[in-house]
Write a structure and sequence with these properties.
This protein is α+β, with helices and mostly antiparallel strands and 676 residues long. The chain contains 16 helices and 25 strands. 52% of the residues are buried. The N terminus is likely disordered.
Length: 676
Amino acid sequence: MKKLLVLACAAMMSNMSLAQEKGILGQGETPHVHLKSINIGDCKWTEGFWADKFHTAEHSMVPYMGEVLTGEVGHALNNFKIAAGLKEGKHKGMHWHDGDFYKWMEAAMYVYAQNGDKKLLEEIDGYVDIIAKAQEEDGYLQTQVQLRSNVDRYENRKYHEMYNTGHLLTSACIHHRITGQDNFLNIAIKHADLLYKTFNTDDPRYGRFGFNQTQIMGLVEMYRTTGDKKYLDLAERFINNRGKYKVEETPETKGYPIGDMVQERVPLREADEAVGHAVLALYYYAGAADVAAETGEKTLVDALDRLWENVTDKKMYVTGAVGQAHYGASTNRDKIEEGFIDAYMMPNMTAYNETCANVCNSMFSYRMLGLHGESKYADIMELVLYNSGLSGISIEGKDYFYSNPLRMVQGSRDYSKHNTETPHREPYLECFCCPPNIVRTVAKSANWAYSLSNDGIAVNMYGGNRLETKLEDGSDIILNQVTNYPWEGAVNITVEKAKKKPFDMMLRIPDWAHGTTVKVNGEAVESEVVAGKFTTVNRKWKKGDIITIDMPMDVKLVEANPLVEEARNQVAVRRGPIVYCVETPDLPENAKILDVYIKGGAPLKVNYEKDFLGGVATIEAPILIRKDQSIEASMYSTVTKPEFTESTIKMVPYFSWSNRGESEMTVFMPVIWNNL
Ligand SMILES: [Zn+2]
């Protein structure tokens, strides 16, 4: 009997040790996913593009943002201090400012997971102490409400309590996974229990409350962290409530658009079009994907498939950006702000493309990658990371874009009317949701590079890194990746440790990488190598094996579907995952961005410039500059054959624009084909 017990205990312990519980998503026990997160910190960038970006996150983005948010300008920590009774004063900042502070804390934790800097952890734990003091006895914690005498708890959804809650729960789970400590998690448990008590009801007063729904993702992580199923049940209830109630203005909805704007007109399981505020929509879909990963509900997965296709194939920019308009209407004629409009309606100059929405697009795709195990989802993650995500922050890591249009023409818009659309990056944005969102994404990017499959490992993203982790069966694996990707297409992955039995190595072949070759120890693999799919190599791996992936890095011209009127007869330039743009500092004197026409079919030369814009490959492009145009002209004028001068200019990666002072920029350019 005793022996049996010992055996049972050993089996239990070995089971426990096999599951990876410390991922970005705590999917150790998640039943309905093909690919799971690796433990945070098991992959580290070592050299090259992402190592450089992480270095900037560690030494500039996170510390600088910390200074801002804990100081007088950012005022986020002050709000907690005042609520804790440690300071006198009033709440400052947007209703969602608490959430933005939690996001920054999450970013700082990812940095700590990589560098083990005890001082950083002490700093964060100091803030956790303050937050604990700010929390009310029953778990409520929302400084934007606590510090206002004229607002009640859960009085009106415009106060963004759900948003702050979601980021609190997520940040606390990440803190717990990385440190093993309970101090932050205990705050989250107390808070989530109150949320359950309040919202686990059929009272219609709370039915339409769950808007800007980061709380769904947060609740699923709480379930994964604590094992308490009530959190998962509540997450599912928030999904089930959408589309269930009559869309009308009530005291709880006053002051913020209703209907499609907040995805409450159509139940999610019936939805086939992404609508409304792009950040709200994508956080909602990402949360629903987390729920589906736990429940395996096919109807929900089918709906998410339709929505993902609708977003990425009908409403997404070539940079991976989403949310075409600052203001407009849905196809149901509901008022829309900062969100999706009709399919193929893709303005360049007025594109809104909030950094958060772009980041959420990659977060949604990361969850879909888990659900289906298909590489097309990682294509979108990568597209966003290199382009419309990174464009949200300067090379130096201290200035931010909220909106990421594809064209900037000085004098075309009155920016004084738009506080979130700016002609250049700003060191502080009053609405501070985007900056910590992109910073936490850069800080955690190494954790997206690999996933665990049932029988092996998937390489989702390329970049110099070292992976030291365990496969699903608990066996050790160490991989060392060396590459100068995305500037060069050759990747070498050396196996430093692997189990004796054969297992799968899933290598992502990007959707643009036609003609890629994959070799193991110099010999071409037998598996099919197809752009847009994983190439799975199953074999007995041994120490010293080298996988070589060679992706052609030709410069390509990209055109939009002809239904995209705003890009008719225009092309963008892309090389590998990087989308390029033309920026005025690289144009001949007095040339304007709208004067630039690209010569189709002309040779495009690549130059790597290590001391330019943090080290980038630029593209030398022959162009034509039109002489007879002006934005001062009347609305319509007659035209005969325009006059052009020839020139050769440098194109820079889209993410790196606006790092050289005020400028004009465009991604899409009219094309003139040489042989016509
Ligand atoms: Zn934002």
